[in-house]
Design goal:
Layout lengths: L1 H31 L2 H17 L1 H11 L4 H15 L5 H25 L4 H19 L7 H20 L15 H30 L5 H25 L1 H18 L4 H12 L1 H12 L4 H15 L11 H20 L8
C-alpha cells in the first residue's frame, strides 16, 4: 500500500511538472515569436495534447504499456526542455506528445493502483491546472533554470525505474449481449455530451477572468482542490450522485457569482469536482480500457467542449449551462435503467 501511495505521488507531481513545462513553452513562444507563430504553436500543442490522447490511449491499451508510459513521457519532457534554445517548435511538439501519452497512460496507472479510485484520480489530476497556470507565467529561464527543469523529469525516471508501481491485474474483456452493448453505446454518447458541456462551461468561466493573473491562479487552486474533493465524494457517495450534485451546484454558483470571488471559486471547485466521477463512470463502461477512459474525459471532451472559444455569443453561458443540466438529466434517467449504474 505504501508503494501505491508513493507511485500516486510521483505521478501527480509528474502531471504538474508536465503541464508546467507546457505552459512555460507556450509562454516562451508568445514572448519570442510573432502573434501568428505563437498561435500556431498553441494550436499544435492543443491538437497533440488533447486530440492526440485518443490515439495515444488506443496504443497504450492495445500494447498494455501502462507502467512504461510515464517513464518515456518524462524522457520526452527532458528532450522538450533541451530543445527550447534550439527550436521552440520542436519543443512544443515533444511536449504535446508527452502530454497526450501522460494524461492517458498516467491516468490508466492510477486506475490500476490498489487504492480508492476516486480520490486517487482526483489527486493525480489536481496538479495539472496549477502547473499550467504557473508555467505560463515564466517566459524566461536562465541556463541554470533550464538545467533544473530538465533534471526534475530525469529524477522522476529514476524513481519510477527503481520503485515500480504495484498494478492490479487487468479485468478480462467482457462479451456482452448486443442489447447491452447498444445501451452502453448510448450511455457513452450521453456521458461524452455531459463531460464536453462541463468542459465548455469551464472554458467560459476561465475566459471571463482572462487577463487577471492573480484571479486565474486562484481559479487554478480552486479547480485543483475541487478535483480532490470530488474524488473523495465519489468514493463515499458514488459517481452518479457526486456528478449530479456537483454539476447542479456549480451551474448555480457560476451563474450567480456576479464578481463574488467566493462564489466563483466555489463554483469552479464544484465544476472540477466532476472529473474523477466522470472518469470512473466512463471506466465502468470500458473496464478493460483504462487509458481510453481517461482520454475520453481529459482529451476528447476538452476538444469537443472548446466551442465557446470560437462562438462569440452573449447567451453562450446560459445555453451551455441549461444544456448541461438537461443532458445530465437524460443521462441519469438512462443510467437508472442500466445494471452497471444501479448503486
Amino acid at each position: 500500500m505504501k508503494r501505491a501511495h508513493f507511485s500516486l505521488g510521483v505521478l501527480a507531481f509528474g502531471h504538474g511538472l508536465n503541464d508546467f513545462i507546457a505552459g512555460h513553452l507556450l509562454a516562451v513562444s508568445a514572448s519570442q515569436g510573432t502573434l501568428l507563430q505563437s498561435g500556431i504553436h498553441f494550436l499544435m500543442y492543443v491538437s497533440l495534447a488533447f486530440a492526440g490522447q485518443i490515439p495515444a490511449a488506443l496504443l497504450i491499451d492495445r500494447l498494455a504499456i501502462y507502467r512504461a508510459t510515464p517513464f518515456w513521457c518524462w524522457i520526452l519532457l527532458i528532450a522538450a526542455v533541451l530543445f527550447i534554445p534550439i527550436s521552440i517548435t520542436t519543443a512544443v511538439i515533444l511536449s504535446g506528445i508527452a502530454s497526450a501519452f501522460y494524461h492517458a497512460g498516467g491516468g490508466a496507472v492510477v486506475l490500476s493502483l490498489p487504492l480508492k479510485t476516486g480520490l486517487s484520480t482526483g489527486i493525480f489530476s489536481a496538479p495539472g491546472i496549477i502547473g499550467l497556470t504557473i508555467g505560463s507565467g515564466f517566459a524566461n529561464f536562465s541556463l541554470s533554470g533550464v538545467a533544473l527543469l530538465a533534471t526534475l523529469p530525469a529524477m522522476l525516471c529514476l524513481l519510477w525505474h527503481f520503485f515500480p508501481a504495484p498494478l492490479l491485474p487487468a479485468p478480462p474483456r467482457a462479451n456482452a449481449p448486443r442489447e447491452k452493448t447498444n445501451a452502453h453505446d448510448l450511455l457513452m454518447i450521453l456521458l461524452l455530451l455531459v463531460i464536453s458541456l462541463r468542459s465548455a462551461l469551464w472554458d467560459i468561466a476561465q475566459a471571463a477572468q482572462e487577463g487577471d493573473t492573480r484571479l486565474l491562479l486562484g481559479i487554478a487552486l480552486a479547480a485543483a482542490t475541487g478535483k480532490i474533493i470530488g474524488g473523495f465524494l465519489s468514493d463515499r457517495l458514488g459517481e452518479v450522485r457526486t456528478l449530479g450534485a456537483t454539476l447542479f451546484l456549480s451551474v448555480v454558483l457560476l451563474h450567480f457569482n456576479d464578481k463574488n470571488k467566493f462564489l466563483l471559486f466555489s463554483g469552479v471547485a464544484l465544476l472540477q469536482a466532476t472529473i474523477p466521477a466522470s472518469i470512473q463512470l466512463v471506466r465502468r463502461l470500458m473496464p478493460e480500457l483504462p487509458a481510453l477512459a481517461n482520454a475520453v474525459v481529459l482529451g476528447l471532451a476538452v476538444v469537443l467542449g472548446s466551442y465557446p472559444q470560437w462562438l462569440q455569443n452573449d447567451y453562450i453561458a446560459p445555453i451551455t449551462a441549461g444544456s448541461l443540466l438537461l443532458v445530465f438529466g437524460l443521462t441519469w434517467w438512462k443510467m437508472r435503467q442500466t445494471e452497471l449504474f444501479r448503486r
